[in-house]
Amino acid sequence: MKKILLVDDDRTLRTVLTRYLQNQGYLVQDVSSGMEALISFEQAPPDLVVSDVMMPEMDGLEFCRRLRATPIGQLVPFIFLSGKGELEDRIQGHTIGADDYLTKPFDPRELVAKIEAQLERSRRIHAEMVRLMQQMAASSTAATAIGALGSATCEPLPLTPAEQRVFWEVIQGFTNKQISDRLFISPRTVQTHLSNILSKLELENRSQLVRFAFEHGYRPPTHEEQ
């Protein structure tokens, strides 16, 4: 079940949308401000964010800007809901980092259509990452002897055993939630390990981490190697 983080200071709208989305098969976490949304995101990263623009404490634009500045927040699909529907407003939303923009009032069916489109796009991106990793493993003769720490042709990773396990999961294209389920650890622990990995390898985000694995010949250990 996909999890959606719904951010809006209008309690009535949050209640209506939460019920509607739950009836569509989504798990919904709703909060009333950008500040609450950042805390909720850190504690349990969702699969997609739907956020209002005009809110107290921290508006949706600042929330999106801060989210996109974090490694885990760079790839999560983000949809703005706003009563400000002028062209300049929509351009500003996309410039900051939103994937889509829906003007109030709107039909909930259109929101669901946009949500499904963004989740499908995210799924294709992860599937392509996995395909590239599999292609790399199949074509690289240097990768055949790589175990949990690499092989003679690869430099040992400067990571702890726990970080290595997260490293292999990330480069296969799994989300933090999927890694959490596969490794039986919390999403927050996954994010902590991922942040440490990026820092130690001097990388900025997951995409760079995958490219790093490709370029240096790392591949996930097989079942026999684990």
Describe this structure in words.
It contains 9 helices and 5 strands. α3 (60-68) links the parallel β3 and β4. α2 packs parallel to α3, α6 crosses α8 and α7 crosses α8 (187-200). It has helices spanning 11-23, 34-43, 60-68, 87-96, 108-139, 161-171, 176-183, 187-200, 206-216, and strands at 3-7, 27-31, 48-52, 78-82, 100-103. It folds into 2 domains: 3-120, Rossmann fold (3-Layer(aba) Sandwich); 140-216, Arc Repressor Mutant, subunit A. The two termini are 29 Å apart. It is elongated, with a radius of gyration of 19 Å. The protein is of the alpha/beta class and 226 residues long. Helices cover 52% and strands 11% of the residues. It has a 5-stranded parallel β-sheet with strand order 2-1-3-4-5, with helices on both faces.
Task: Report the biggest beta sheet as strand number plus sense, adding barrel if it closes.
Answer: 5 strands, parallel
Quick one: how many beta strands?
5
CATH superfamily of the largest domain: Response regulator
CATH top level of the largest domain?
Answer: Alpha Beta
What is the total domain count? 2
- One letter per element, helices H and strands E, the order comes to EHEHEHEHEHHHHH
Radius of gyration from the CA trace? Answer: 19 Å
CATH topology of the largest domain: Rossmann fold
**Which structural class is indicated by helix and strand composition?**
alpha/beta
What's the arrangement of strands in the largest beta sheet?
2-1-3-4-5
Strand content: 5-15%
The appropriate CATH architecture of the largest domain is 3-Layer(aba) Sandwich
Helix-residue proportion: 40-55%
Which term fits the overall shape? elongated
**Separation of termini?**
29 Å
